[in-house]
Amino acid sequence: MTYRLDPQLDKRLARLVAGLPAHGAPSVPGREPAPDRVPRIVLVVVAILLVLGAIASYIWLINSPPLPNGASLRCDDIDPFRCRGSAISAVQWTTNRLAAVRSLSPARIHSAEVWRDTDVCRDRLCPAAYLHSLERTLVVKIGYAGGGQDWVTVLSCDDGTYQVGGSTLGPVSYVLSPPPPCIKAP
Amino acid sequence: MERASFEEVVAPLFPALHQRLTVVLRDPGEAEDVAQEAYLRAYRSWDRFDGSDARAWLYTIGLRLAFNELRRRRRWVFGHRSESDVFQPSVDPDLWAAIAALEPRHRAALVLHVVDGYTQSEVGEMLNVPPGTVGSWISRAKARLREELGE
Fold first, then answer.
1. Whole-angstrom Cα distance, residue B34 to residue B144?
2. Nearest-CA distance B92 → chain A (Å)
3. Chain B partners of A13 at a C-beta cutoff of 8 Å?
4. pLDDT category, B43, cuts 50, 70, 90?
5. Chain A residue with minimal CA distance to B28?
6. Where are the beta strands (DSSP E) in chain A?
7. Mean pLDDT of A18-30
8. Could you say which of A160, B2, B22, B150 has the lowest number of CB atoms within 10 Å?
């Protein structure tokens, strides 16, 4: 169906529209080459490699040799003047020990911080045996360059040594196993 | 057969698009801006154009941009324009004033149907409304123009 105003008005409308200003077309941008797109297959391969890398790192962390429970090292193996009785030296000791046991380059460990036991136990259920050793236990959180972390129990023993009480991949499993008692250094 | 280039096909349609958008927006400057944007969008999607009716395709892009512009204007413009800012064509200012009283979509439907000769169905596709709605708009526009022009 066609709606005509009337022939006269149609012409007026056509004349009006034709008399309106009309600029020419703007110039379009030159034909640019299509942007270099990374082929989808490359993206997929990179994504797969990243996922495999993440899985491999995780497996490496899980399977790397654990710190030997009860292993003892005298302070003077590291620095006899700074080791004794200091949380800072305990961190340093732990870091060095961890690096040695796991054959890590020191650069691989990018952070080590002391968590008091109460920090770890605050919101979790800690076994009574663990709570008994609170005063002489430190928890050192080791951060690895590139991600990953370990929670290492460090016992401060009466004879001035530190002992690694075990390491785990997280504070939850850590608090479920109380640290072993100090072993007298030979 | 090799496909015609964008500029060969679409550039000659630009002045007509500008004029139709001026009817919708009632401002040749804004109409030119919208027409240029439509032209650029058409250029970018030229590869996807099915090759049927380039004029209808370009008008569709331009009109949708114009209606978006009108919505944006309603949302953000609070003042009134002074009379000196209002565009007055040199040809038939009475008819221009009468068309100004119509809804923008009605203006578009009227021009596409009466001036460009598109059917209700084609206009409906361009304005994204059913053909019956286009018929109703044109009928109302016609009645309103008669009333405004005292015919």
1. 27
2. 6
3. 95, 99, 110-111, 114-115
4. confident
5. A21
6. 72-73, 109-116, 137-144, 149-156, 162-168
7. 77
8. B2
